[in-house]
Amino acid sequence: MQEVELVELEYIKKGVEVQLPMLREAVRSQISPAAKLTDFGTQVVGQSERKNLTKLNYQTLLNNIERFRRGALITDIDYQFLVSYDKWLRESGIAHNTRISRLRLLRALLNEARKRDIIHTNPFDRFRIQQMVSKKGFLTIEQLHRLEKMQLKGYEDKVRDAFLIGCYTGLRFSDIVSLRNEHIARGWLTKKMAKTGFIVEVPIAELFGGKMVQLIEKYNSNIERLTKNLSKNSSVNKTLRNILDRIKVDPKITFHSSRHTFATHLGQSGVQLTTIQKLLGHQKLQTTQIYSEVDRKAITNDLKKGRKRIQQ
């Protein structure tokens, strides 16, 4: 009964009209102003339709915050909490992008709390989260051309070609290995992304001189001949590494770097970030902006095009 009264008091402080069913549900589900952030987060994420990997990332965040400040309530998370938590993360020595990812997840949880009238405002409205930094690397045009010209056979040939698909389309490994013939029609590739559920449409006949179309023709217009035996990312990455070593490519390059290669070269050719965002299936432009190599050259090219139009 004392817990019910505490929850009711917290709602009253926030000017929320309280009803008994609301109180019962708030206490039962640990979703109330008096709930611990870890309990709230566990309930909200557990009841959501988020991917399993995303749920694991949220649990890591909650465990991390519990180490930072044990027993913190949802209502304890204010601007100063964020400043202190961010400083604690930086001093812990974790990678920059990992720190940014945790802050973004915390922001999403607090947005959920605001929707439930647990908090009036999200302190992230005043707290600026830095951008992620691209660290995967990408193949230069010269390296890409050397890779295309390599004479390979069997499994190595398929691994190289699968990597090239990523360079030509921006698809992730999980989407490449699940490519089917029905995903490709009339010069376009249309596919629901495994990670996000977002549908991407890629004009493969237009991008990179239509090299993706030529690659499909190599397999007699049957993409499944290429993708059906490439199920394990670790095995593919090991084989890919052996191939890339022969053309002196940075050891940090992995299969996922094909996606970065795609985005970087589009940006350097003057394609706007909003277009690259759609092709990659990013729901937020901020995610696309990690390609710092893209930004400067894209801006320069756009300005050059603008000057030409003005002078005409």
Secondary structure layout:
Elements: H1 2-13, H2 20-29, H3 37-47, H4 52-68, H5 79-92, H6 96-115, H7 141-149, H8 154-169, H9 173-176, E1 184-185, E2 188-192, E3 199-202, H10 211-218, H11 224-227, H12 233-245, H13 257-268, H14 273-280, H15 285-288, H16 292-311
Antiparallel strand pairs: 1-2, 2-3
Helix pairs in contact: 1-2, 3-4, 8-12, 8-13, 13-16
Structure, explained:
By secondary structure, the chain is mostly helical. The protein has two domains: 2-125, no CATH class; 141-311, Orthogonal Bundle (hpI Integrase, Chain A). It has helices at residues 2-13, 20-29, 37-47, 52-68, 79-92, 96-115, 141-149, 154-169, 173-176, 211-218, 224-227, 233-245, 257-268, 273-280, 285-288, 292-311, and strands at residues 184-185, 188-192, 199-202. It has a three-stranded antiparallel β-sheet. The chain starts with a helix and ends with a helix.
Which key terms come to mind for this protein?
mainly alpha, 58% helix, 3-stranded antiparallel beta sheet
Indicate the radius of gyration in whole angstroms: 24 Å
CATH topology of the largest domain: hpI Integrase, Chain A
Work out the count of structural domains: 2
Task: Supply the CATH architecture of the largest domain.
Answer: Orthogonal Bundle
- Shape from CA axes? elongated
Could you give a quick summary of the protein structure above?
The protein has 312 residues and is mostly helical. The protein folds into two domains: 2-125, no CATH class; 141-311, hpI Integrase, Chain A, CATH 1.10.443. The chain is built from 16 helices and three strands.
